């Protein structure tokens, strides 16, 4: 694969030793990690509210207690087992002297002196898949066009694309559509919050008549059509008509509503985009966050990735009538 | 008696396209998929133009277009596909079914309203 893009990933930094911050920050900066510091009392609430994390950097003596790190690792692992935990230790960069039970919660250990060795582990757990730059840029372009066609007069802000290992579902409205080609097989998900979307419907910022918009089925339709538009544009740009095998594998997708959790049967990190729609009309600012995640759980062969150059060049512009 | 039948499983698209056409003085009926579209067209043969999605549950738009000709025997109604699809193979299938044109979503009404009016006999 060529021209792979350098994506970032957010990691929680749970470390109570301020003397380490500088080195950890330097390591994060050098390895495309965005470190988020959290107070000990807020860790669980942050974990419950954040849906876009890549991992945890945790110190063994977290919160000033010798067993504080291991206890926290177990608490995190029990609710967010998909997040790799990297344990900073004082003298050993192995987990050999840690009990097997505690070891299950931790992906790797490091010391400040050996923090550079964590680079390979980060690559293994977070940046294990690489994505062509043209694909990442293209997804943003086609999604922006879809959002702008379905939401009237809004500003759309796009965060830098990033990698997540989270499996949590954000908000209440969630679409899922297969993405299948000779070089990738998986799903695209869009997730958003109902109340924020309803506010935009009430403000007449969608194609739904505000008087009809209070039925949740109408709200579903808005995100459904954005999904359809992105899916179609993705197919037109990145997939060919080449016939594929009729005997393709599938795996069950498991959703746990209680935990707002979705599993695609794979530990693959997901490619994530966050769009914020901002409406400043009427003196009141409204925001709608939409998370877009790609999980290529069935096949990811970026070395075979191609953009349909001929179709891009010959494309009839969207919205134009091609008369036969 | 509608001039235009909009066939799309997305209520958002039906609203968007329908509101635009009505605001331009056209009468519009709606169907939620290809099967519903066939039923509506059979009940209202005065429809002059069908604007139809491709990917829909129960019956897709291209199958519907083929059945309009083969089962309803309606060779006069104009059919335009409004879809995210842009594959040459699908367009060829549409041509063979006698569709009049193809629009890649998103819908941009101003770009097509003059042609729509002509095809709808307005």
Strand tally of chain A: 14
CATH topology descriptor of chain B: Rossmann fold
- What would CATH call the homologous superfamily of chain B? Response regulator
SSE order of chain A, one letter for each helix or strand? EHEHEHEHEHHEEEEHHEEEEHE
Q: What radius of gyration of chain A results from the CA coordinates?
A: 22 Å
Mean pLDDT of chain A: 88
- Which quaternary structure do these chains form? heterodimer
Can you tell me the CATH class of chain B? Alpha Beta
How large a portion of the residues of chain A is in β-strands, by DSSP E? 25-35%
Please compute the radius of gyration of chain B using only Cα atoms: 13 Å
**Tally of strands of chain B:** 5
Determine the structural class of chain A based on helices, strands and strand pairing: alpha/beta
Instruction: Provide mean pLDDT of chain B, rounded.
Output: 93
Distance between the termini of chain B: 13 Å
Walk across the major sheet of chain B and give the strand order. Answer: 2-1-3-4-5
| CATH level-four homologous superfamily name of the largest domain in chain A | CheC-like
Q: What can you tell me about this protein's structure?
A:
The complex is a heterodimer of chains A (324) and B (122). Chain A is α/β, with parallel strands linked by helices and 324 residues long. Chain A contains nine helices and 14 strands. Chain A folds into two domains: 8-125, 3-Layer(aba) Sandwich (Rossmann fold); 133-314, CheC-like (Chemotaxis protein chec, 3-Layer(aba) Sandwich). Chain A has helices at 18-30, 43-49, 68-79, 100-103, 118-125, 133-150, 194-202, 216-238, 309-314, and strands spanning 8-14, 33-37, 53-59, 85-88, 108-110, 155-158, 162-164, 173-180, 184-192, 254-256, 261-263, 270-279, 286-300, 321-323. In chain A, strands 1, 2, 3, 4, 5, 6, 7, 8, 9, 12 and 13 form an eleven-stranded mixed β-sheet that branches. In chain A, strands 10-11 form a two-stranded antiparallel ribbon. In chain B, α1 (11-23) links the parallel β1 and β2. Chain B has a single domain, classed as Rossmann fold (3-Layer(aba) Sandwich), CATH 3.40.50. Chain B is globular and about 30 Å long. At the A-B interface, α6, α8 and β14 of A face α1, α4, β5 and α5 of B. β14 of chain A pairs antiparallel with β5 (101-104) of chain B.
